[in-house]
Write a structure and sequence with these properties.
Distance between the termini: 16 Å
Strand content: 25-35%
Number of helices: 1
Order of helices and strands: EEEEEEH
Structural class: mainly beta
Helix content: under 10%
Strand order of the largest sheet: 2-1-6-5
Number of strands: 6
Radius of gyration: 15 Å
Shape: globular
Low-confidence stretches: none
């Protein structure tokens, strides 16, 4: 089994403004942990759930629990100079970039977003 993501960034773009990169606050949450701690604690808090597969065969997915923040994509790239740290066996040396944008709470297009409750329930069942 590979290690969970260590290098995580988010890239947020809003309208015509250029994207900004940031470092999220990361909380590792496992299948046997209480899923209620994933809910935002205040109105301006955004929670993104990166579901990392337990085997090398799965593909990581990410979803937003916020009604006004939408995940556009997840890019997985080799982290620059990660191998130089010497912790190759202890860390996942990929860089995970979560691309987001703002939303007015409505979903447009052919795909439908799952409600936040369903995302947490799905995570709990794993």
């Amino acid at each position: 089994m590979s290690q969970p993501p260590y290098y995580i960034l988010f890239s947020h773009s809003a309208g015509a403004q250029p994207a900004t990169l940031g470092h999220p606050n990361i909380h590792y949450h496992y299948a046997n942990d209480d899923p209620s701690v994933l809910w935002p604690q205040h109105p301006n808090e955004h929670v993104l759930v990166l579901d990392y597969p337990q085997s090398d065969k799965g593909t990581p997915t990410v979803q937003s629990l916020s009604k006004d923040l939408v995940v556009v994509s997840l890019k997985v790239e080799e982290a620059p100079a990660a191998a130089a740290t010497g912790d190759n066996e202890l860390r996942n040396n990929n860089m995970y970039i979560i691309e987001t944008t703002t939303s007015d709470g409505r979903v447009e297009g052919p795909t439908e977003r799952k409600p936040a409750y369903d995302v947490v329930a799905q995570f709990k069942r794993r």
